[in-house]
Amino acid sequence: MYSIKKEEDIPYILKYHRANDMVNIFQFFPGLSPIDDLVVVLNEKDYLANKDSIAELTSIRNGNPVTQPCMKSIPVKEKNPDILEVMKEVKKENKDGVLILFHLDVEATERYERYAGISVAISLGRKIFIEAVGKGFDGREVLKGISCHERYSIPWSDIMRLNISNFKDYRSFVVSDDKYSESREERINYLVSCGLDREVLEKSIPEHYTEIPDFVWLDIIKNIIKVLIKEEDYLRSSHFEEFNLSGHTEGRRFRPWQMASSNRM
pLDDT, tens digit, for every residue of 154-176? Predict the structure, then answer.
């Protein structure tokens, strides 16, 4: 097992997709990620040997070595996942696959409770391209190209003048009623497959699309877009000229879990 709290383990953590992406945020956007502890668990034996010491790390993702294509996400419940069962599914996909277990510095929410899932694609010096989905959705839909409810394109030259009053001027797309209904049904079916209750989902995910609240966009303007101007040289020197910040809201803030460069496999 490799732990983010051990300096000597970090090079090994960076050898796995998604774990690498999660650590990138710590480096370039301190305070943005909701993660405050993280381990990479190699196999079932590794998990059982360390189970007691990592009992509070109840959030879970899966990953492949960076020398291989990124593994598809294994669907899991956000709360109380069966970690050994997920490990078995990972190993079915790839014997070299691992589990990434982590702890959040916020109270964990159910996947249908969040305000938005958002992907912020950044091309340094050129533009910022945002795709988002609304209440009850998360970053899965926009990252995988499954759904998009709102889309924005911001030229780099406009960053300094950008504010919450003119932010909507950069919006190029809002989902239609029919397309939203289709995406809602797909989302509910997917969450049911993850073990969530259909009746709860039907009540929680709006029947008609409600735009993402301004306080979410204000958070992104302040804590990502404006920061890019100050960090542009640092990002460029670290070979992050094209990258993506993605995840979902926790409470009133966008708390992305990963920062992936465009040259990731």
Answer: 999 999 999 999 999 999 999 99
What are the φ and ψ backbone dihedral angles of 113, each rounded to 5 degrees? Answer: -95, -10
Q: What distance in Å separates the CA atoms of residue 100 and residue 41, rounded to the nearest whole number?
A: 6
Torsion of CA 93, 97, 102, 108, to 10 degrees: -10
In the block, tokens 């993660």 appear at 35
State the Cα–Cα distance between residues 226 and 211, nearest whole angstrom.
23
Rounded (5°) CA angle 100-106-112: 80
The owner of tokens 């690498």 is: 20
Tell me which residue of 119, 109, 73 sits closest to 93, measured CA to CA: 73
CA separation for the pair 49, 209 (Å, rounded): 47
Assigned token pair, 105: 């510095």
Of 90, 92, 93, the C-alpha closest to 42 is 90
**Torsion 161-162-168-171 (CA) sign:** positive
According to DSSP, the residues that pair with 256 across neighbouring strands are 247
pTM for the model: 0.85
Token look-up 């014997």 returns: 95
Determine whether 179 is exposed, middle or buried from the number of CB atoms within 10 Å of its CB (0-12, 13-18, 19+).
middle
Whether the per-residue pLDDT at 217 is higher than 90: the answer is: yes
State the DSSP H helix or E strand holding residue 179, giving kind and residue range, or none if neither. helix 177-193
